Amino acid sequence: MTMRLKIDITGVQFFCTREAQARTDRETGAPKVDRETGEAQWQVQVAALDTTGGEVLAVTVAGRPEVTVGAPVAVEGLVAIPWHQGERSGVAYKASSLRSTGGPIVGAVPSVSADSPTGKKAA
């Protein structure tokens, strides 16, 4: 049985820092599926900020989340899951839901120009 530690996120603000990525099995490349819901698992990198500072977390959620890079996000049901494999160990984070709650912070994400061949705005 895997231990799941509920995290009190009172007073913590979260911001999406990377687009959602589908979680896949490293050997087969098949999508990982949530055991409880049967939905595909997705991972979102978020910055968690409170009065003591910030941390970057990779949070897994069932079903593709509606998130925007640079936007504040609501994280519900956040749990920490300690793990170990041989000599390696760490903490995985999982949430019952994760969604954008507003538009991106101005200046947090570079603007894109359609007339640029790379899609990046010229300086």
Walk me through this protein's architecture.
The protein is mostly beta strands and 123 residues long. Helix content is 0%, strand content 41%. The protein has no helices and 9 strands. Strands 1, 2, 3, 4, 5, 6, 7, 8 and 9 form a 9-stranded mixed β-sheet that branches. β4 and β5 (53-62) form a beta hairpin. The termini are far apart.
Envelope shape: globular
User: Which sheet architecture does the biggest sheet show?
Assistant: 9 strands, mixed
pLDDT under 50 segments (min length 5)? 113-123
Average pLDDT score: 88
SSE order in H/E notation? EEEEEEEEE
Question: Keywords, please?
Answer:
disordered C terminus; 123 residues; mainly beta; globular; 41% strand
